[in-house]
## 1
Amino acid sequence: MDFLALYVTLKLALVTTIFLMVIAAPVAYALAYYRFAGKSFLEALIYLPMALPPTVIGFYLIIIMGPKGFIGKTWGMLTGGSLLFTFVGITIASIIYSIPFAVQPMKAAFSKLDRRLLESAYVLGLSKRKTFFRVIIPNSVSGIAAAAILVFLHSIGAFGVLLMVGGSIPGETKVASIAIYEAVEMMNYRAAGMIALSLIPISYAFLLLINKLNERNRI
Amino acid sequence: MDFLALYVTLKLALVTTIFLMVIAAPVAYALAYYRFAGKSFLEALIYLPMALPPTVIGFYLIIIMGPKGFIGKTWGMLTGGSLLFTFVGITIASIIYSIPFAVQPMKAAFSKLDRRLLESAYVLGLSKRKTFFRVIIPNSVSGIAAAAILVFLHSIGAFGVLLMVGGSIPGETKVASIAIYEAVEMMNYRAAGMIALSLIPISYAFLLLINKLNERNRI
Amino acid sequence: FAGEKISVAVAANFISAFKEMAPDVKAKTKIKVEGTFSSTGNLYSQITNGAPYDLFLSADEERPAKLNKDGLAETPFVYARGQVVLWSANKDFCKAKTWQEALKKKPVKKIAVTNTQTSPYGAAAKKALEKAGMWDALQSKLVNGETIAQTFQYASTSAVDAGFCAMSATVSDEGKKGCFYVVREAPEIIQSACILKRTTNRAAVQKFIEFLNSPAAKEIKVKYGYR
Amino acid sequence: MSINVSFKKDLKYFDLDISFSCAKKNMVVMIGPSGGGKTTIVRMLAGLEKPKEGKVVFGNEVWFDSLRHINVPPQKRRLGYVFQDYTLFPHLNLYENATFAAVDKKEVDELFELFRIGHLKKRKPDMVSGGERQRCAICQALARHPRILLLDEPFSALDAITRRGLREELKTLKGKMSFPIIYVTHDIAEALYLADELLPVVEGKIDDQWLQRMITRDPSTEVALRAAREPRLTLVY
Amino acid sequence: MSINVSFKKDLKYFDLDISFSCAKKNMVVMIGPSGGGKTTIVRMLAGLEKPKEGKVVFGNEVWFDSLRHINVPPQKRRLGYVFQDYTLFPHLNLYENATFAAVDKKEVDELFELFRIGHLKKRKPDMVSGGERQRCAICQALARHPRILLLDEPFSALDAITRRGLREELKTLKGKMSFPIIYVTHDIAEALYLADELLPVVEGKIDDQWLQRMITRDPSTEVALRAAREPRLTLVY
Ligand SMILES: Nc1ncnc2c1ncn2[C@@H]1O[C@H](COP(=O)(O)OP(=O)(O)OP(=O)(O)O)[C@@H](O)[C@H]1O
Ligand SMILES: Nc1ncnc2c1ncn2[C@@H]1O[C@H](COP(=O)(O)OP(=O)(O)OP(=O)(O)O)[C@@H](O)[C@H]1O
Ligand SMILES: [Mg+2]
Ligand SMILES: [Mg+2]
């Protein structure tokens, strides 16, 4: 059993989820409350990672994260290291890959909110930023929970993209889904089944946790 | 340019979205409103397709949809045909693969609904079933739109699963993402890029459509 | 025989060659040859679950042999031999005399190899590196591509400095932009094929196999880097 | 049909314990301090909340009986209920709201004229004033031909004149209908004008003294008593 | 600080056109038929809705001026506003709601006692009665030390006794505070008791005749006038 791969998987999924919650919230807010030129276009762009096959995303990510690509070059200048084939690299890839799952449910929750709550907050003197943190976020818990569940699970299942950007390096970028893939390719179906099975309790535990948090905040 | 593959992709994504909306709504309703033994477990099971790598899902789907598998056998008895490598087969695979994306946002929307609306409907004599169609559904439009967007785009990007269950039979099971895969395998990156690019307007058009519908029903 | 059709499961690395052969076969024998392309492992599981293919062109020897042993396929035969090369997008890389020397140069930081357990190309590359006594020393520089096409992608996008690719990659448009060494120390990759017993059109399949062994087919194979 | 009610329920700061009955064509008006349990009583009558103990009998139908474990769901009680916060369906316009469970759509047109919101039919609830919403909620409840009507402060958001007008309409309506009406209000004049029976609810119990104090303390109540042209006041407890 | 207001806005069935002013320590009470535009006026004052034309000057601050394109956002106006439907934040309990924007938390404790909801601090808004919610909303508005107070039917869900009590408290409070209060009510007695100036709003305009008719038509109003111990009524128009 490839425990190292399971550990990397879990770490990746958690880090991705936490980062994406922070990144996606303001984006979802802008999409839910503002009208601006090119908004639908921006939205389509954000959702694009879903519609493209992982191989395509992976291919473009290799290019931009590679030593000649924009992100890769910047990273190289800052740290002197390479981004591809590292844990940081697959984390960035996984974040980009899962953006739509974070943004879409949050946007739905935000835009469903009772306008009067916002008006009340404004009258009480709260700036838009404070209203966001003190009113919108706590009243959108179920949408945020939905986003967290989708992102976490999707990061666990992510495979094609990570395979390309990560290079399957044990302990660093070799996640469980890659281990499963390799087992299948080697016709070792029992091993594949075992790793797949071990993902179930992980996913299940996370799901229970989120549901508990969600219920406590249910309004 | 492989127009046939684009056509199959679009058809698959639409059929999947429509079927999944119908299947997922009652499931999301049960998850949002009822408490029953094993509920978290059922929920985890429903979300499982996200957490597993597509190859694993594809592998198990081949087994159960094959001539010796449960679904495959039943289908064979009913129609005399085989399910694998047919459009119906990849549709079933795509539905199973996208279930979580349909259920999760709908559940979030349903459970966010003002309880007083339901009480009002009950007092007005509406059965639970009628309340579902006449009150819950129309007041959860944005959540349903979120689900439709996620499912549609995810079906377009689906790849690993379809490759395994569908083979790549032109006009039947060869979708755009598989065409991209083949182009990449042949190291023909330009062709791959072209097909990927052509997916953007399709996704964009669908997104605009859903946003329009959503806005018209915005409450 | 007008309007006859056979279905062939083709390992992903052979797509280009296969696609060029199909129209020739059609012209000569009126048989329509339809290909389904995927990884060898994937095709294998499809076949064991009753996929309706007539012929399987594998990327290795192992899986056709296994199908034969399990009674699903006839005796396998070799239809192509591949060769490992060391390819780089950077033409300066090939200025050294041998591939071993090129790899030892300073600026080389990352080298792509295909998964040595799942891919015969990876296994062959490993053998060559072992023969050269470099396998252990290079461990920290190695990056695993999952398929031979992906290894080439790493190299062609300069994500790695060089990669152990298939000869067939060097003849593609992308491949011509770089340079390569033929890695003679790596054993030939033997790709074998087998007729699946479920076929209902054995005569047509036989005709296609005859073509596969003909000089015309040989020419195409060479063009795409096979022997 | 008349209704017989007896309820017990433990609330956090007091225990509710109340029983009363209302004959057909009659109106029981509940009045009492804020937080005294009026809304809770009405919700239990509607079947939206479950009493700890008690019994509700409507005609010869048993709606609730804690001993026999009977609890008819709200759908089957066929009652009209105007919520204190007059919930309308936000996705429907006022007319669609009122016809939502209507027996006869033509009646809704008449009701809308009666309640002076005919010109607002096409508006969504969030585009009209509080009083207009409230009147629509009453039309919605009446249009479904209820067998009993529960009104929880239905005119709280209305000005005195409109309120007086609608109060008259309600009285006329009551004459035409033949069902019991349970009415919650804070307006003592209104209570005295409309009530066949007055039910002062204080901390979950019927409290006659509270009502007496209320009447003697507030001089305008005396006038209200005079003003109510048919002062047929019966106190029940 | 005093406030000077003049507004024009096109509503669907009539055009709103109104101007009035309110000195510091004074209370302007708006009264009028349902749907007449009272809530709309208050919302425009709060900066939640934009008038078509007009001007709002508070002290020497210009809050709104259609000609000079000035429109100070609600956040900067520092006013206390109790909404007609008394919106509280559903994720917070009553105490957290009231201290949400409070200057001094200790004051909130006092306010809760004054408004008799001290025992409900820990409850979420959906676990208390309508009147209790309403009182909490008033505490919330007062606790932030507003420079002007807008109350849109703040006591509509309260019984007469509680209402009379709070009315007195409000009057005492008014004596202590030194800001203008704009008050919307449907209760003519309350209006007469509290108002320094009465503003009858009918179909978007000030309508004196409506008020006269109202007073002569309703006999209880006369008594209410008597009952209001300090009848300092000034009609403004
Ligand atoms: N959902 C609830 N859960 C628990 N307690 C509640 C709930 N709703 C109200 N209460 C409490 O029960 C008591 C009675 O409330 P109820 O709403 O019945 O009063 P009411 O007489 O209708 O008051 P009002 O005139 O203010 O509307 C109050 O003490 C209130 O705080
Ligand atoms: N959001 C809105 N959009 C358009 N029109 C509205 C909106 N809200 C209210 N109206 C209309 O504007 C007019 C004035 O409404 P407003 O809410 O100001 O009345 P009000 O005097 O407060 O009535 P009430 O006493 O019933 O609360 C009414 O005709 C109403 O239908
Ligand atoms: Mg109440
Ligand atoms: Mg109003």
## 2
Amino acid sequence: MRIVVQDAPFDPGAELNGFTVSTQGTGAVVTFTGVVRDLATGDLDVMEIEHYPGMTESALNSIATEAQKRWSLVDVLVIHRYGRLRPGDQIMMVATASRHRKDAFEAAEFLMDYLKSRAPFWKKEITRDGSDWVASKEEDEAALNRW
Amino acid sequence: MRIVVQDAPFDPGAELNGFTVSTQGTGAVVTFTGVVRDLATGDLDVMEIEHYPGMTESALNSIATEAQKRWSLVDVLVIHRYGRLRPGDQIMMVATASRHRKDAFEAAEFLMDYLKSRAPFWKKEITRDGSDWVASKEEDEAALNRW
Amino acid sequence: MNVLYFAWVRERIGLPKERIDTDAETVADLVHELSAREERYAAAFADLTALRVALDQELSSFDAPLAGVREVAFFPPMTGG
Amino acid sequence: MNVLYFAWVRERIGLPKERIDTDAETVADLVHELSAREERYAAAFADLTALRVALDQELSSFDAPLAGVREVAFFPPMTGG
């Protein structure tokens, strides 16, 4: 299990390959990569991500540990950035490795659902005209009910 | 949409990065990578994959087109190898890109379920002691019922 | 028409492809015709529930008509992915 | 105890962290005490349904006791991922 919280960019392709090599012979590897989306108006300048140092790492650790309890996983990787990002930048990534694809898929979705609503990150969208904190979505909270 | 059927190895990390760049600003990218698993006995020498040239490409195209009809996807990538592979080698990869993670996850699972049972590939496991065609699993056929 | 065999069907019959002239009306008729011809076909076609058929590269069924079909393929259930 | 604020809660209150000496028994008591102290707290805590609280870096609830707690954090619902 590897949990990374950093402001620096990361390389999803290199992470996928490194993860696959370290779990060699596992069978199934699923990744989710989150990328900064521009606004519908096309004028997003910066996406600023604030987090709660200390709690962030422990929350992500708890979520990943819970995933390993619920599914048969060979390994779990979670990377999440904070700081000032731009449209097209990678925000975060999760990767799961298992013998069978069902475990890897379900665990990756579980990680994403919990990470969205239970890890202490907050996004702010900054345009030339001002800034707005991104509101949480009811559907994200509701997504937790299926697990 | 990109469908690739080849005997040559491919680089999943480079494919993920290329796919993410080409769908820049999309939000969510999901990948599944299938890797040759060794046998429980640890003596798999070669995994030989046979396919049906022509039908393979059209079946994968149909499956990917169906995924694009059912979910809101910005792009779909399917790569599948044939020929002689060894434990740890990448067999195949699917990638999906969408604005919201639910579409990307569901479409990737759908692609995998259909690819498993509806694309004309057959696997043979070769050890020092002989060879065996991999039997299809009832659970793989049953997995189609959820879509 | 061209008849193709894959995986263990190909191995049991002993060739990947052959040209067959037939008046068989359905896939099942063709299977019976071939099975009656030689033991290796009978062995390959012994259990149709373990087989799949594609007509002109589309999955089909054993009761499908062969009229107009140019390529028939027999193979076990797929195991890709 | 240390009290931390994040995102728009931090912006409304005007600081990320402060040390507060209090006899409040629960989180809700602390919220009332701070809200009564200054308008900026009252503004930040106006709608508790829009807020979350963590005690010693674990998500908790507004009726949780503060006995033994060293760090309280207030913030809006998370929006990571």
## 3
Amino acid sequence: MASDAHGETLALREQFDSEEQQKDASTLGMWIFLITEIMFFGGMFLAYSVYRNFYPHVFAVASSSMNAIIGATNTGVLLCSSFTMVMAVRAAQLGQRKIIILFLVLTLILGIAFLGLKAYEWNVKFEEHHVPGPAFHLDGVDTQGPAQIFFSMYFAMTGLHALHMVVGVGILTWLIIATYKGRFTAGYMTPVDIAGLYWHFVDIIWIFLFPLLYLIDRHLG
Amino acid sequence: MATERVDSVKTYAAVWIVLLILTALTTAVAYVDLGAFSVVAALVIAVVKMLLVALFFMHLRHSTHLTRLVVTGGLVWLMILLLLSFADFMTRGWVGVPGR
Amino acid sequence: MKSWLLTKDHKRIAVLYLATVTLFFFLGGAFATLIRVELLTPQGGLVSSETYNKLFTMHGVTMVFFFLIPSIPATLGNFFLPLMIGARDLAFPRINLLSWYLLVIGGLLALFAMLAGGVDTGWTFYTPYSTTYSNSWVIATALGIFVAGFSSILTGLNFIVTVHRMRAPGMTWFRMPLFVWSMYATSLIQVLGTPVLAVTLVLVFCERVFHIGIFDPALGGDPVLFQHLFWFYSHPAVYIMVLPGMGVISEVISVFSRKSVFGYAFVAFSSVAIAVLGFLVWGHHLFVSTQSVYAGMVFSFLSYFVAIPSAIKVFNWTATLYKGSISFATPMLYAFGFIGLFTIGGLTGLFVASLGIDVHVTDTYFVIAHFHYIMVGGTIMAYMAGMHYWWPKMTGRMYPEGWAKLSALVIFLGFNLTFFPQFILGYLGMPRRYHVYPDEFQVLHVLSTAGASVLAVGYLMPMIYFIWSLRYGALAPANPWGATGLEWKTASPPPVHNFDEAPVVTHEAYDYSTVMGEVIEVG
Amino acid sequence: MGSLPLFPEQASTIAPEVDHLLYYLLTVAVFFTLLIFGAIFYFAIRYRRRSERELPHVIHGGLTLEVLWSVIPFGLTMVMFSWGASIFFTESRPPADALQIYAVGKQWMWKLQHLEGQREINELHIPMGRAVRLTMTSEDVIHSFFVPAFRTKEDVVPGRYSTTWFQPTKPGKYHLFCAEYCGTNHSRMIGWIYVMEPRDYENWVSGGGPTGSLADEGGRLFESLACSNCHKPDGSGRCPNLVGLFGRIVQLSNGSTVVADEAYIRESILQPTAKIVAGYQPLMPTFQGLVTEEGVLELVEYIKSLGPKPGAPAGANVPVVVPHQQ
Ligand code: HEA
Ligand code: HEA
Ligand code: CUA
Ligand SMILES: [Cu+2]
């Protein structure tokens, strides 16, 4: 890993003295970016908690109208993708290029599967008139307003989560191409590592969204 | 941080299986009437899952103090947002005057 | 041209920022001028109510999001943070350039909104007015602020990583100049606070476009929730606006009294303390919003905690002067102005943090006066101090000292004439955001407008002589003030990679005995 | 124009208290401002640079000083906090015998209703010396009810009730402002408060509303909206008896309790399913969109008039200290 300060290697940028410094900087940068993401989703979690606290009954009814099977399956899919992602990172640590690609592709497929299920779910919501708007209607509650708020939060939260997934899918695609072209070596795998952090973070968000949106007081319904 | 710590496939696989089991568990538990503890159970399981992902998949357990500080900071700030907001929402009506 | 637009050099990016925020300052200033002229008469003859509402909204939006928040961090911070810690550049130069582009894109979106018809929600975008009732360009403006927010986040992220990872050998945390400490604290706020504003704007956006009812009371939503989310960012944001200024003042006070800042560690930690405590007080903007009484008390109580670190700073700066060798160069004059006006602004912050007083003065000109004292009297003074102090380093030219001193004086006088009467107006009950007002308030409004014209002249002067000095100013030596920072150890202006020889730090900051040998007299 | 006052008129019991707190704050502020300005001037002149070569002694700091100038200001601010909070607490709790008046804000006017049925727009007549309690709501955006001479202000929020109160001490005519930005004519959403001698007020108010008292009006609405079909005065049928409801603690079906205040009654009418009374079914339809905010206030007043909580004076607000969620 010894490269001189004004490194001519592909990887080392001129503002850094060493690759180690560069990697530390990138990793720290990514973690800081992730806490901005925590705060970003945090705003929505706040809104969600406030309204759930205002309208517990409506939220329970609305939540029970979700398909928990799809929700649980999707959670599983995402967890599997996290596993394949971490395997890709591991392969990168060991410098096994083919295996990196294999696992990245698997992750990509799982990510797309998640988005597919999500799209299917949204489509169902459309047909059931659970999309906020003039046509909105939820059976089982009398006051449609709070119910609509639940679904507004649902769409905002899952929508922004899905947006992050789409970005993740883009990153994965780029990584696969770059790995294929041989950009990464055992000495320089920072992008894979960092993409991994991002992907797991998006997974963690979903770990919270799933029980909060799909599983409120299921025993009632 | 001279050399990367490489975890074994076994560790990763174990964590992965546990995560899947926890997902099944949280789903199942939702159908049981635990009263107010339903939320608690759901959140506890979610937090455990989060910790597993963060510590193992995101390598937090091998990472520097600084990284851990950053993560803790992020969570603390989230708590500030939630708790101080709820200082309002939970105490509304305490004086028994509408809007106060 | 192309070399500038694609540059990754933090110094050039800083200059790009400088040009951008200056533009927005004069735009915001033009809106302010129109506001003040309009308020000359109680009956509001110059513009319609609708236009007036757009004026103060666009004034607030421009000044806050496109001028003051990026001002010191993105110009002086960008230019000097790497230099002061002995780095070749920021950790992520490409992200740095991206931040600038984001600011420009955000600014263009906001400008588009202004040209297309303007926004009239107030810079605070309170719901349900902003989501349901306003038929102005809320979406484009919100989008602009959203994008500019990411510029701010990325700048903060870049600075934090740079401070952690790029310090020169020997540059320990407690050898860092206080400006770096304050930029670090500022960055923390940018990173932790701005995302919440971003998501709030997304929710407003969704609500406005799809009418889905997240804050809509008609559907059972809570408009006060919006206020919590907004101020969770926007209160800490006021420290984004003032902490960098405090950093500049620490440098300037030290250099021009040729003494180490009194209680260095206290000043350094107070920056971080302000950044942290600043997140605990946002509810003091909601005292009469129907927030619960107890929450009001908690937030009032916590507000006083954030005042203490500010007090510590003010006292330490003043104590630094004691037995110093005090020069009256322009940056120092501005620094004096800053301390005085920030003190007044901060102390009146204590008034509005007191529940009993705030119920009466909230949403009146008292609040307007409070924050202009800090933001204009404080931060802009500090910004001017920093601009004069570092101008020789940035451009390699000296500014004309006489003119500079004159403009500092004009700004100080004009400022007080503009905003002092507003404290009285506010306590008398003059509500803010009023286009027409009862006759009895006119005298004070006229005074304020008179002051604003003096102030405008004061701001135009530096604009002219700075540009003049680019061509005709005397050539600046490497260290014209006898300062200790690493930025003065390299040429004026610095070479592309900042230092010809990688610096190694062996002394604490502000050790003037090390530079006395190289002091060069300046006129 | 004419004379240039520096302080607004003091016309309520709370006004002098607020002003006293202000004097305290001014004293502290002026003291520190003079201290800092004075020190800067003195040091700057006393220690001005006399030669380019001079190098002052290094002073690193002093712990005693740091502690002193943290602790003393902190003590001073704690006085600001507790004094301000105590005034605020008073401002938040109207006395039990306050005169009830309702206010509805709307772009861009104030609509005020007296119990006796008098209605006013942008004007409010009140008796001197008597505490007045306003229950307020908005039909559209947030407004704020601000009377500088009384030093009171409270936002008026759509979708909920807010409360403010004051006790005028001086007859006269005072500004009423809308202090929360509410759109184009925000600055024209102003009016006057007329504080009258109690006897004049009696005359004014007994001039009578065009349609009778607010409660009567509410009773009529109760009939025409067919509330009375379900809610029978004898409590028969599947609906709760509303007699004596106001101020009572209501047991809800989810086990919690709530005090039947104005906000609860409003919610029962507009969002009946939000809180279900224990032992009843969520049968009640929502009246959202069928009744204006003013109408709701009339209904509230009617239900209040249906009989007090045993032992309490009529129309009184019974302060209750039972925690409940909202
Ligand atoms: C840079 C900007 C900035 C800064 C630094 C501050 C600093 C402070 N602000 Fe200010 N504030 C604003 C910008 C700022 N504010 C803006 C823009 C608004 C209005 C927004 C809107 O509604 O549009 C506002 C509004 C505002 C409110 C709400 C008013 C209302 O709308 O009703 C409150 C209430 O508590 C408040 C309090 C404070 C306090 C306690 C501080 C403290 O941090 C001040 C600390 C400083 C000192 C105390 C001075 C130095 C100390 C001494 C000289 C020693 C003596 C000290 C003691 C005795 C303690 N501010
Ligand atoms: C950084 C922030 C910042 C800055 C620098 C300023 C600067 C100024 N502001 Fe600012 N102001 C705000 C932030 C700021 N303001 C905010 C957040 C609000 C609240 C908005 C809201 O309610 O939503 C506000 C509201 C506000 C109001 C209240 C409006 C109302 O409530 O109705 C007023 C009224 O006097 C005012 C005046 C001024 C003046 C005179 C200046 C001066 O300092 C400006 C001086 C600069 C110039 C004058 C420009 C230089 C010269 C030219 C452009 C040449 C042309 C000029 C002439 C020929 C005269 N401002
Ligand atoms: Cu109503 Cu302002
Ligand atoms: Cu604040």
